[in-house]
Amino acid sequence: MSHQLLPDRSTATVPQRLTFSEMLSLGVGPLLAMGLFVGLGIAAGAAGSALMGSLVLAGGVALINGASIAQLAVAQGSLPLLEGDEPLPPFPTLRPWLQFTAHWLLFLFRFTTAAVAALGVAGYGLSAARIDIVWLVPLALLVTLLGTIGVWRCSAPRTLDDATVNATSRTLLKLRLGSVIVAGLALLLLLVAGWMWMLRLELPIGLPSSAHPVAWVAGLQSTALLLSFYGGYETILRLPVHPVSSRLLPIAIGLIAGLSLILSLGIALVGLGVVGAPVLASAVTADVAPLLAIVRGLGVHPGWTYGLAIAAILVMLTLLLEHIHTLAIALPSLVHPEWVDSLSRNPKRNPDSRTAHSASAQWAVALVGVAIACLVLVGEVETIWAFSAFTMLFYNAITHFAVLHLPNATRLYPRWLAVLGLGVCLGLVGWLQWDVWLVGLGLISLGLIWRGISQWTDDSDDSPVS
Q: Of the four listed, 47, 221, 408, 416, which is most buried by Cβ atoms within 10 Å?
């Protein structure tokens, strides 16, 4: 039988569906882990005085992206429970090569977010402990190694079948929900303390803006970077969509976008008022911990620094573990299951098929860990973040394109909304640096070439021998 690089829908099982709070945690989690704790400083460096306008524009674009994702999820009926249950084709209306491109982009996005999370964990730990930033990359590599070992041990005694994947994904979801609650409380305390500090000093509270053309150009560049804030929307494509959750999906997406925008605007106002955009930007370069610069600018008790650092480490570490697990599940379907299995084929060590499959799962985890470690070695969070924005913008563009091909009976929103989203995503990606474009397009081409080689190999294996 010829191998397909996208899984067969007929083999999927439909587990229990997510609760409403879990939907919110899936969407808000990446905002906290990547967006506010790290990305806000990157966006401040790019936008300067146009940061607030960029946040508002990014929130609006993210809401349009979420609307298209909800339409796809509802149109497909039942889907696997979590992103770890990876990966049914989320774009049944598109050609296989475009479906593969969407999966490949999402795969690359998760790699970049995992690397940012590892660097963020290291940065907040070092900054809180007042340790030299020279240890950033070594500590991030250690965090990646420990996370990989943890997921490796989870996959050691059993195969990555549906029950195991769902159980592991459910555990990681609970960890994410807990870390999101802790991080959300820490950010709310920071928000209240910052506003009280500005009111006490009678600082002006408003939306700084500029009509200068350079500011608007910087604002568009920042908007493109900020869309990585909302990288959790794609998880909704893995939700089991039943009549109840179909009604809840638009509400959940609206709440995710609204809460994310309000929280990010509030923290950004505090950051701009307490330390300013240049300090937020330099804090990313200095120690990948921009929010700790705000806490220190407030002059509060050092315990606040440790508390916020712990919250940041928890939410980013949870995201790292979740992505290692998800990427390990997705790797065989995007590469070639037999090629991954061949790494574990040793009759002496793996005498039965169950042990062989377990070893194959472990090899997938190991390969993912090595790849994330290689990306961590880049060491520049801004570069990795820009590439994650590139992959997410193109992924969202494919999502809007797929919605345009949905039958009118399954469409939730007007067709022009998807057209607008497609145009905005393709327009914003043009504001990213040219080197990000070159690397991104090169990796997309490499993935498509890899897919072609795999299909050619399968066709050669299936051809009758004369």
A: 47
Q: Over the stretch 130-174, which tens digit does the pLDDT of each residue have?
A: 998 899 999 999 999 999 998 887 765 444 444 455 556 667 777
Q: What is the pLDDT of residue 30?
A: 67
What pTM value is reported for the model? 0.83
Q: Are 337 and 135 in contact (CB under 8 A)?
A: no
CB 386, CB 225: distance < 8 Å: yes
Rounded Cα–Cα distance for residues 6 and 465 (Å): 27
Please report the pLDDT score of residue 203 as a whole number. 57
List of domains in the chain: 15-451 (1.20.1740.10)
